[in-house]
Amino acid sequence: MSHQAIIYQPLDAARREIRLVEIAxxxxxxxxxxxxxxxxxxxxxxxxxxSYLWGDPETTEDIELxxxxxxxxxxxxxxxxxxxxxxQHQFPHRDKNSFLLWADAISVNQQDTAERSSQxxxxxxxxxxxxxxxxxxxxxxxxxxxxxxALRIIAIEAPEFAPGPVxx
Length: 168
Description:
Elements: H1 3-7, E1 17-25, E2 33-40, E3 48-52, E4 60-65, E5 68-73, H2 74-90, E6 100-102, H3 104-107, H4 113-129, E7 132-136, H5 142-157
Parallel strand pairs: 2-4, 3-6, 3-7
Antiparallel strand pairs: 1-2, 1-6, 4-5
């Protein structure tokens, strides 16, 4: 039996179930520890979704998922270290342990073709139902820093186009 089979329990497609990631620890000192929680989109759960660049599939880092070692791309591993703090910035009065994240490479059993297909169809509902969608391009590349500087200038110079308060 593979680690995937141990980590992933089947989802109920009729209930529109998805898996959310609870980040137990992501301090950068020790291996990031996460747990999966299965929920139904029909129950209107509070969760965030992560949109990110997968990065090089050959460059991976192990995290702990449901007490098992689990490989993710280094870019996703880095995102897991930062996303909760960005969420806390948006929701400062919430308990940091209530942060739940949908991240496709972890939330979907990538070894199960039928599940992957089913979950891809749900993505049109997952992102709109997320209370916050976080985008992660990676850690500090010069091109990204330049792009973020440009976006900051645009947000300052053209506030009427901003959807709401801008926080950097």
